[in-house]
Amino acid sequence: MSPRNDITSAPDRDEDAILEVRRLSRRFSRKPVLAEQLLGLVGKAPEIPVLTAVKSLDLTVRRGEVLGLVGESGCGKSTLGRMMTGINPPSEGEILYNGKRTDEMSRQERLAYTLAVQMVFQDPYASLNPRQTVGEILSEPLRVHNRCKNRAEISERVDAALNEVGLDPSYRDRYPHQFSGGQRQRIGIARALIVDPEFLVCDEPIAALDVSIQAQVINLFLELRAQRALTYLFISHDLSVVWHIADRVAIMYLGEIVELAPTTELFDSPAHPYTQTLLAEIPSVKRRRRAFQPVKGELPSPLNPPSGCTFHPRCPMATDRCRSERPISRTIAPGRTVACHLHEPS
Amino acid sequence: MMSDQSSSPLLAVENLRTVFHFADGAYPAIDSLSFELRAGEVLGLVGESGSGKSVAGFSLIGLVDAPGEIVSGEVRFKGRDLRKLSDEELRRVRGKSVSMIFQDPLTTLNPVLTIGEQMMEAISEHETVDPAAARQRCIDTLTKVGITSPQTRVDQFPHELSGGMRQRVAIATALLNQPELIIADEPTTALDVTIQGQILAEMQTLQKETGTALIWITHDLGVVSELADRIAVMYAGGIVEIGQVDDVLDSPRHPYTLGLLNSVPGDTPRGEALRQIEGAAPSLTARPLGCPFHPRCFRASDLCRTEEPPLAEAGDHSWRCHHPLDPEKTP
Questions:
Q1: A292 vs B200: CB contact, 8 Å cut-off?
Q2: In sequence order, what are the residues at sequence separation of 6 or more whose Cβ sits closer than 8 angstroms to the Cβ of residue B231?
Q3: Which CATH superfamily is domain A3-131+175-343 in?
Q4: What is the pLDDT of residues B80-96, one digit of tens each?
Q5: Residue-wise pLDDT tens digits, A130-143
């Protein structure tokens, strides 16, 4: 065993982990334009703004769980999900799949990881190729990865996948535009499932769907999880859906996880002021003619994040310390972590 | 914000029908749409995509273009039928007494005009004012909707503002001429819950201050239950149930309303299957005969398959269903 592997089996390693990310960062910046490149040649390179979408983030997904990932648009939750599936490479840090660093995997291991971790996308209109039939969309992964012996087997697998997501196999010759939004999302799920993954990253999979169709797709996710023993990272901005489906919830703000807790505990006693705010904002049919008391301000630009705790400009409880010192994530109860100065042991 | 029930309504819609002409015929997007709105009242118009809720909103002020056509019905605003007005007369109503807020502020704001320029256009369209006074009115209205440093914002372009800010500008523009009715079409759907909360809070305050009546079109029952006085539930081009928020949500009579309420997480224990409505809403060109909801309804009978249900009512609460739910037995 290499010394690096020893680090991964350090005491804090979660035995049930299917996927871990450690000190994971992702930065985006643009390429310098010609004038800037020329200035660079004479040693006067101007500074190009860098956007940090995910900031030195640690997170463990346990085998068989549904981990809800919640945050406002622009907080980096999709970028994190895409890095977990290997679609986008991280700028820094490591991703461990079944305890093995993905950047140190052999070709064969890497292929196994790529197939085992699949993604379901938000927009069922943009994520299906309009010029391919459903049969072609679903058989492509099988052909590319040589998962089947012959055409007959591919055809069987496609029919089975359509059945599994509640679509009639006779639909295989239709094109995506012939389906409703809910049906398209089922096709997207079938495409992810056809390579027998064990971990699905679901990026806002129901946000684009109607209320009655959302319930159908949530039920499909619940069924599939029970039948296939799947693990989900369920990215959503809808806390009521996350409450229903997730075992644990991670709350993300400006590239960092600010609170992580088992679902019932998070909803019963949210620790971070941001979580408290989000919970208060869930629209509910139980409340009538409420006097809204919303959080002030908007998510700051990740190009120019606030000093100290990044939530301090919007936090009703912010102190001078919050403005200058960045809070570190600490355990406040078994399985619960929060990054907030208010929760420091006195 | 309950107003006097005996006074005549601010808006009375009767049997409004808007069709869309396709190569193979005309299909009604809304049909026999009737409802009333009192001054200062907030009505939540709820429905899924394709239910006709947006077409209903547009039809009220004649904003339907080909292939759509408003073919019949009345829209009486303060006793005057808006459908009988000339284009010029209707222009004087729109943006003055009735204004509209759209879902996507990035496409409804003009990208090449500053915020101030397009807001002032909304004023000068209806009255002759001194530019400095108009500008000040824009700044004051921007302040009202929660925009910080409005003196700077008024000279900025839409792309320099965040999504929430842009929607605030759209709301401010709608408010400029102190309208008596605002029609808001999914104004917070594209926004984060935190920003949605802020905008709902501001709308609520402004609505109370100005006494403007509000039609809030949305798919989110949670939002209307917190904001509205009354709810109208639309399905396949018609209102299937309408009444006070408490009546409709606590004792729904139409199975579709109950289905919508059951579809959202909350009452079902965590991790268990939600009580879903089977199937999908019918498309414009394939509306079922009889009650349009019958293919998805757990109470459907032969009667529902052949005959459209008539309007039944109890007080201010009415519904269209052959087999309405028993108010004593629903959760």
A1: yes
A2: B43, B44, B46, B221, B224, B225, B241, B242, B243, B244, B245, B248, B249
A3: P-loop containing nucleotide triphosphate hydrolases (3.40.50.300)
A4: 999 999 999 999 999 89
A5: 999 999 999 999 99
